[in-house]
Write a structure and sequence with these properties.
Layout lengths: L10 H7 L11 H13 L4 E6 L6 H11 L4 E7 L1 H8 L8 H9 L6 E5 L5 H7 L3 E5 L10 H6 L3 E5 L7 H9 L4
Parallel strand pairs: 1-2, 1-4, 2-3, 4-5
Length: 180
């Protein structure tokens, strides 16, 4: 039996394999801003996406993985509980923002998660100045919040593929009426 020499991993490879505490990746806006600036100074492309992520499903996972492939780092902004209630109604969210953020942060493709309280992520986008703004394919380009801002500093906006029929609202309807 021949022994192979040990191959040394690059820092990126070590970071990819090293387990991390998901809670540590849920950051304040200022901490995410510093992390984004540091990554961009290293020449990394930072991608931003956002949503309620009230009930994480395969559509979310595939969109997040697709968004991450657009750059080197992925920031996910999560609507606060009050913001979700204003957008989706009094019975939502199902889970508190901190829990939703932690579940997202545990995904391998997500680097940082930040919670925002406004109805749109425009303030957060302008604060972070990502290189790429990615949003689900159910949004038309002209309705993507932050599009003009990102383009103004030379960034790009990408519509992600969507999986037809996979939506939190549809899952909740099936849960209420399993015979459907």
């Amino acid at each position: 039996m021949t022994l192979r020499p040990v191959q040394h991993r690059t820092r990126a490879a070590e970071r990819a394999v090293k387990p991390r505490d998901a809670r540590a990746a849920v950051l304040s806006i200022r901490s995410v801003q510093r992390a984004v600036r540091t990554a961009q100074q290293r020449g990394e492309i930072v991608v931003f996406t956002n949503g309620c992520f009230d009930l994480l499903h395969v559509g979310h996972v595939r969109s997040l993985e697709q968004a991450r492939r657009l750059g080197d780092r992925l920031v996910v902004a999560v609507n606060s509980d009050a913001s979700v209630r204003r957008l989706k109604g009094p019975t939502r969210p199902l889970l508190p923002a901190r829990q939703r953020a932690e579940v997202l942060a545990a995904l391998h493709c997500v680097d940082w998660v930040v919670i925002f309280s406004e109805d749109t992520p425009l303030r957060t986008i302008c604060c972070l100045r990502p290189d790429v703004l990615a949003k689900g394919g159910d949004w038309s380009l002209d309705t993507i919040v932050g599009r003009a801002a990102v383009k103004s500093w030379g960034g790009r906006v990408v519509r992600l593929r969507q999986i037809p029929g996979i939506r939190t609202t549809n899952i909740l309807k099936r849960m209420k009426n399993p015979q459907r």
